[in-house]
Amino acid sequence: MNKILIPLLAAACLLATASASADVKIGFVNSQRILNDAPQATKAKKKIEKEFEKRDQELQKVAKRLQTLQESLEKNSVTMSESDRRDKDREFNELNRDFQRKQREFREDLNLRQNEEMAQIFERVNKVIKGIAESEKFDIIFQEAVYFNPRIDITDRVIKALGDGSK
After folding, report:
1. 25-165 has which fold?
2. pTM of whole model > 0.90?
3. Where are the domains of the chain?
4. Dihedral sign, Cα of residue 61, residue 66, residue 69, residue 71
């Protein structure tokens, strides 16, 4: 009896799977394209650039000063007195430590702000994707895939919907 039941169950599972897969509607959204092309992402990038522009310029000034100090040390160290050379070395090292600290803080603050903005964007993106999925009766929409057929790519529709919603 088990020899007959097992093949029948396997055939029933195959038929159920085949009929279920024929009705499944799958979509794919390219997250990287959303970050590059969505109006909200472009707006967020410009906002962050403007927000961090002054600090970036200050860091560039300090970097230039460090370079000038280093060149001066290399050029004049032979003719300087020992105490002058030590003072310049100390000044250079203190400025360099301060620069590296400020640079590290800048990067940390910049990453934090970028992550905050991206979280807001993806919250909006996910709402748009969910709306498209519900209105067009998708069963599943992927945002990450090793491969996807361009026929299931709905990224353009998502970007268009984001653009319509940003006005």
Report:
1. Protein Binding, DinI Protein; Chain A (3.30.910)
2. no
3. 25-165
4. negative
